[in-house]
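Figure S4 source data
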Amino acid sequence: MGVLRLASPVPGTLRPLTAVPDPVFAQQMVGPGLAIDPDRTGRQDVLAPCDGVVGALHPHAFALETADGRAVLVHVGIDTVSLAGQGFELHVERGQRVRAGDRVLTWSPVDVAAAGLSVMCPVVALQGDPHDLTQLAADGEHVSAGQPVVEWTAG
């Protein structure tokens, strides 16, 4: 299987999943990973963190299925499902193959924050083993969209 490099889907500050105000992510119920506290910009593209096929797709979240059977979830903000897609623009379709760095959706962290919701963006190795993830940047470090932030090694 080898090493899968995951890039930050948005520009912002790296945070541990435990900082996400949602127990499903904070307690790693769906898998290990990290979160990005995004830069507060009006419109922001959310990029694919790796190559894959778009599996689950919602205005506020998507999962990519990799060629070797792994899956990566990007959740854009917390409780953003309550916005019913308002303020989110999808640029891909389910079943579409994407490459790392491709634009998947566009959103406004400013608008989500103004709605009283957290803008944290968890990036999760679905069903992954925490021991297989190596963080490439330190918590609190500012990262660019497309910058590698995790290596996921799987046997």
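Figure S5 source data
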Amino acid sequence: MAELKVNTIGMIACHGEDMRLVLDKTYASALAGLDGFSHIQILWWFSECDNPKNRSKLSEIKPYKNSPEVLGTFATRSPMRPNPIALDCVQVTYIDHENAVIGLSYIEAFDGSPVLDIKPYTPSLDRVENPVVPEWCSHWPKCYEESGNFAWENEMNS
């Protein structure tokens, strides 16, 4: 098997409500054409959770109040997983091409979280018109815009 090498392209900067993706200036030219996309998908590393114990966790005991008693890691969005990779769809507030910075409305990452990649959100490839989810989470918001006002704290057991 070929050696796998993943390079970080930047980091998340969170200072209060000011959230940005700060790219390494090497990647500034990769921002060409990103203007006009309202949302992007950011793949980032859950660096705060990267340790052997968390990487070996393959199931969770009832992580959500309405979930089955045991959920496999791949049925959760937990940072405790074999590769602590996170995926967030975020709204772009501005793009500063000169300084290689993308303003974000919100991201659940920590300040300093390494960023692995960025992809534009395109409904033709990323939106599922009629997704089906298990009954235990069917009352969750149906879209990104509704998620910000949802009482997620009432869903989690920990």
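The chain has a mean pLDDT of 94. The longest strand covers residues 85-96.
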